[in-house]
Amino acid sequence: MGVEVVEVLFKKKPAMSLIFLKDKKQEWYASKLAKRVDCTYPHMVNVLKRFEKSGFVNFNQDGRKKLIVLTEKGHEIAGLLQRISGKMN
After folding, report:
1. Closest Cα to residue 13, out of 89, 86, 81, 88?
2. Distance (Å, rounded) from C-alpha 34 to C-alpha 47?
3. Structural domain of residue 71, as residue ranges?
4. In sequence order, what are the residues at sequence separation of 6 or more whose Cβ sits closer than 8 angstroms to the Cβ of residue 50?
5. Are 21 and 28 in contact (CB under 8 A)?
6. CA 73/CA 57 separation, integer angstroms
7. In sequence order, what are the beta bridge partners of 57?
8. Contacts of 65 (CB under 8 A, 6+ apart)
9. How many domains does the chain divide into?
10. What are the tens digits of pLDDT across the range 34-46?
11. For position 72, which CATH number holds?
12. Per residue in 56-65, pLDDT tens?
């Protein structure tokens, strides 16, 4: 894992984004995720591009929606981040 990815993962909003993406009951797309973590849409798109490049997420087109789904690797990283954040509370 490159240094760039580590810098992104250990920032609050990108880390929370991965954790929220674990909720498979939701259909996640960039604008919805941006609202959920309270950041701008352009910032979320940049974070998601980094996540895709690192193999954490894939995008699935559903009509006009571009849905975001965690890969196996992304699910594992999200779980680790969730456990770390739980230990810090």
Report:
1. 81
2. 10
3. 3-88
4. 4, 5, 8, 14
5. yes
6. 8
7. 70
8. 27, 29
9. 1
10. 999 999 999 999 9
11. 1.10.10.10
12. 999 999 888 8
